[in-house]
Amino acid sequence: MVIYLEPEIGVPMGDGVASMDLTVRAETAANTIAHLADHGVNVEPNKEDEDVAARLAMAYAENPENTSRKVTTARASKLTPPSLLLVNNILQEFGQSIAESATQIRHLVTNKLIEETENPDPRVRIRALELLGKISDVGLFTEKTEITITHQTTDDLKANLRAKLAKLVNPNQGQSEEDVVDAVVIDGDEIDVDAEFGIDEEEDSAETEAEQDAENSAENAEADSENAMEDPEPQAPVPEKADKDMEAAMKEALEDDLVQENDPKWGQ
After folding, report:
1. What is the tens place of the pLDDT at every residue in 44-56?
2. Is residue 207 part of a domain?
């Protein structure tokens, strides 16, 4: 088999190809291998080709940047065409399966929620409509919080704090005499506050007498307590009848004495 090459004259040749992603390199190599396969190149993979493709795909899945940097043009040229084809197929299927699966799951969930909006249970219908409204494409129940941040320097904060403290210390600071308003005297008839509030004079006098009685009772109680402290052993009170009998007996004794003094026989 003879392959004829037609070189392009005038194309600058660099030191090497810049690093590219492994998916791009594998796709480019696969396109070249597919063209070579039409001319009889064997592309049937064996066990060794499958192992090489699997290890390369696993390495790319763990660290895409590092793997892409290590697979240079020189190293890629040492791989067999079947292994390069397998690497491209794995990477293409791996990359598309994630996107397609996510899209399919998204459509499946959305369609199921739409079906549940016709559920006979009102709680299920409301919940399905709520979840449909929360989908990012709809954004009906999206909660938005606006936060306003005012940045101030340290000097501005100190100045504001000093101004507030100055107002607390001297509230009238910064006010001119024209800003100060004098009190206004209003001339008018006197208002009887008791009459306005419906307070009767008799009630006032009754309350005053009750207060005076209470004060007098308190004073008498204090006086009794003071007397009790001065005379700790008070004498028992004498009944009025006993006083009268004693007075009558004393009068009779005095009369007898006078009679005996006037009787001339009393001295003989």
Report:
1. 889 999 999 989 9
2. yes
The secondary structure element, H or E, covering residue 256 is: helix 240-262
Place of tokens 């940045």: 151
* pLDDT tens, position by position, 17-64: 567 888 899 999 999 998 888 888 888 889 999 999 989 988 888 888
The C-alpha angle 91, 96, 98, rounded to 5 degrees, equals 105
Would 64 be classed as within a structural domain? yes
Q: How far apart are CA 223 and CA 148, in angstroms?
A: 75
Domain boundary among 202, 222, 242: 222
Please give the pLDDT value at position 266. Answer: 47
Q: Is residue 27 a contact partner of residue 92, using CB atoms and an 8 Å limit?
A: yes
Q: How many structural domains does the chain have?
A: 2
Contact status, residue 69 vs residue 77, Cβ threshold 8 Å: no
> Which two structure tokens, joined as six digits, stand for 106?
């998204």
Q: Say if CB 85 and CB 45 are below 8 A apart.
A: yes
Which H helix or E strand runs over 197?
A: helix 193-197
Place of tokens 């390069």: 84
Model-level pTM greater than 0.90?
A: no
Structural domain containing residue 212: 193-222
Residue 176: inside a domain: no
